[in-house]
């Protein structure tokens, strides 16, 4: 995501968020997606120049540019500042994961001065894969070194002092996008899971950025990698067009994956929300072998699991933001994080609920969004109460590691 949201926000608690936008990928996604452009039309775009232009004042300002279109002044390494110290006895800021000030020195080691999201999942062999959204490089170069998305890796299982990334050189994009606002500006990963030795990343094709905390998608889809994230393909069977008359696909534009545990074992669950940050949360389930076959998905209708023609019912109501959901052996419950007005935690005995009321575990003053749990957390491995998650910080447009203790 890039920084196209400006303050003040619409009437919600959501903290602002960053992102640019793109559509029909290098692979065709069919006439249904093209039809969505004709039906919905290109929305007005709230456009700024990306993370590099963040003034650090809480308001995004357009770049002042020279004759070559390059920014005047500023830093090649973006606006990152020291991570604010916070520790209330339950939650604390640990360290930056990305950015020139992080322990990973991502500007030097990966060509990343700013990025966000940091969806994390285990690749099935003990390695954590992390998919990031809109990524910026040298802020003084034309084009700002922008990539639609990037993938980094880690084998670090001791997160108390921070998350260490493996160094592999310049981080190129996972998959591209057209790059035209109003058509397709970017593709943002929203969920990841490993099944049968392959990696699956659900992403949204963002058509344009709207008012604060609002963005418009063309579709969501699932990209597949058989080589641990080095290359990706997107089966057309996974595309969910964002069409106003489609009550299922339109509420699965952003996602979270979790593998079922206990009585839910044998299923993979996909949580979904509409585009932006103002919709309810829904849930579907599928057998691992059916991950790319939407026709075999089942949807929670409020009282039972129904087939692909069933109308899903919300399992979480309200302004649900970017989601992360995991099973905790410590609690023997599912844990859900999202981030309206600070990071919020819920629990439930089953993916369909009932979900508890959200408990705020970080304050709004930290300006965190997109909390994504790390699979190597003790709370997710059954070895302790510590739950670690990535969270993006608006003012610095980078990802930080946060620890909370579950009860």
Automatic annotation (TrEMBL):
Domain of life: Bacteria
Family matches, as InterPro entries: DUF4185 (IPR025442)
Domain DUF4185 span(s) in chain numbering: 102-402
Disordered, as annotated region: 1-20, 70-90
Protein name from the UniProt record: DUF4185 domain-containing protein
The organism of origin for this protein: Gordonia spumicola
Top-level taxonomy: Bacteria, Bacillati, Actinomycetota, Actinomycetes, Mycobacteriales
